[in-house]
Amino acid sequence: MPYILLVILWITWCTLHSALISLTVTNMFQKKFPNTFHFYRIVYNLLAVASLLPILLYASSLKGEPIIAWSGAWRIIPLLLGLTALFFFVAGARRYDLPQFLGLRQIKKSHTCSVLTDDCSLDTKGILSMVRHPWYSGGLFIVWARPMDLAAILTNVVICAYFVVGTILEERKLKMLFGQQYADYQQQVSMFLPLKWACRMFRQSRG
Length: 207
Prior knowledge:
mainly alpha, 10 helices, 68% helix, globular
């Protein structure tokens, strides 16, 4: 029962996290509260963190014997996962507008973007020419770079499923905003792993 509750808590958090940033909800809030909507992103981020902490505390209370310990020669795996995640996080931060992500730019300029760029354009350069969602890529790697008991494994499964489903929903929104431009981008660049980029590099090296 405690583990079922943990899964329910994670699914609830993930569902609310995606719903509150959807175009339907944000447009509704923008219409109802036009004078204060520029605070929406920062409030959204604070609520996300505040609601996440109790779940993390509950998950830690279920700590048990590790099922996957990454011991001995296997220690190289979490190291590689962590370094790969760090690469995606740092490279993504170099392309994303962090004040926009945090909600600070919206307060200063009294406007908001649905993408993490300061001019609301679609950025496809740098790491974004390799993968479409580098922070999600980093998240997929980092959650497995630790010893894992049952609570951690269940948490990872839900979080990874959320990354995939959340990305699909986010990309529907981006296709509504950018139309064929984003559809072309999807065809050229992989979602999480730089497979299409690697294929292009391989073909160029042989040509």
